[in-house]
Every structure is written in structure tokens, then in C-alpha cells.
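Standup notes, structure subgroup. Blocker cleared on the fructose -6-phosphate input:
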Amino acid sequence: MFRVYRTKNYEEMSRQAANIISAQIILKPDCVLGLATGSTPIGTYKQLVEWYDKGDLDFKEVTTVNLDEYLGIAHDNDQSYYYFMHENLFNHINVDESHTNVPNGMCADPEAECARYERLVRTLGYQDIQLLGIGRNGHIGFNEPCDSFPAATHIVNLTKSTIEANKRFFASEADVPRQAITMGVGTIMQARQILIVASGKDKADAVRDAFYGPITPTVPASVLQLHPNVTLVADEAALSGVQD
Ligand code: F6R
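Run returned:
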């Protein structure tokens, strides 16, 4: 099943995505939520926190697994995805800290950390729902366009363009991490449900190529066409490359 919710704007996209995540939590309170960072899901997390504050949502039995993390960045660095998740979600809800999982960017042995993380997601029984954003080049997690779909959690060397794009968040380009750990496309595809969010005109080509073009590792998100349960929640601008 591939379902598209076309929303007027970012706010509506955020509310709709939060509704779908809420439904998952209400139907299965001890679910495994696969989570993403980036600017797109911030409104979704804000909405979830609002509903939690109102008493409509309970995260006490929820487990979370994040997609990715920079290597060599400490938890208290405000650019770490660990920090992002605490700032935007975990610090504001009643999730059990020991049930939240982000790859450890400060691990001594990154290869071993990848294997540990992959094992962890498998042991948890994989994600009930995986929230994803999409990169302008069609990436999901840190799975960048390449010649084949990387299956398992692995180390990626950030591309020059990603380093260039991210340097605005750091004191200098030299401070931008060169590597990251990411779930592989195979890890993502194990999720029972995929919820992908997109907003803005600069995502229009990626959304069109991912869902309405050929399945190819040069557009990593296009692999989602092979997944049996995908919901795309995107605003009009992000869907502007697609016919009604
Ligand atoms: C984040 C992630 C990335 C982002 C993507 C879109 O954990 O894995 O793939 O989802 O880069 O980022 P934004 O939402 O900032 O446009």
C-alpha cells in the first residue's frame, strides 16, 4: 500500500504525521518507533509533545531507534543527533531514557557499534513505524546516492556537498564531522510501516524521483516503492513535481 496525504503547508503536514504516529502508539503502547532528525520532523515532534502535555499520549512503554548519528561528536554537542532528539522530543515526554536508542557517535570501534546497532534493532523486532525525511538528492538516513543499496547499519563518509551544506551549523568547516553511522536501506525496509515527510519546493524533485521514477540506488528513497506499507505526507510544494 502506498498512500499519499497532500497537505496545504508544513503545519498541516506536521499534524498529519503526528496523527499517524499517535495512532501507532495508541494501538500498540509498547511499539518501536524509528525516528529521524533534520528540520522536517521538528513540527511533528512539537505536535506530539503538545498532545502528550494534554494527556492524550503516553510514551512510557515506547522504545525508539534513531536512524543515524555523526561520528566523533559528543552527546552534549548541540549538533549531535542525540542532542537534537532530547531537545525536540525526549526531554518533553515520559519516554524511558533507557528505551531510547541513537547510534553512539563517540564509540571507540565504529564497526563494532554498527554491528551492535543492527543487532539491537533486530532484537527489538524492528520498527513498527519508521519516520523518514528525504534529502534533496533522495537520500534516506545517511544513505547517499551510490551504486548499490547498502543493507545494514554502516559507516558513511560524508560527501563534499553534505560537508559544505552542514558547515553553517559548525564553527568552521574543519569542525564538520567527516563520517556518520546510519541504518542501512535494508534496516529501514524491515520496518512494518514507513512514514515519510517532505515539505517545500526544494524537495519536489526528490519526491517525484523517489516515488514516481525508476527504483535505483542513485535515488536511495526509490527503494521504498518495494515496501508494502508506505505513507507519504507532503505539502503542496513538495508534491509540485507530481500530477494529481
Ligand atoms: C535525519 C536523516 C536525513 C534527513 C534528510 C532531510 O535523521 O536521516 O536523511 O531526513 O537529510 O533533512 P531535512 O528534514 O533537514 O530536510
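Discussed briefly. DSSP finds seven helices and ten strands in the chain.
Next: hand off to the docking folks.
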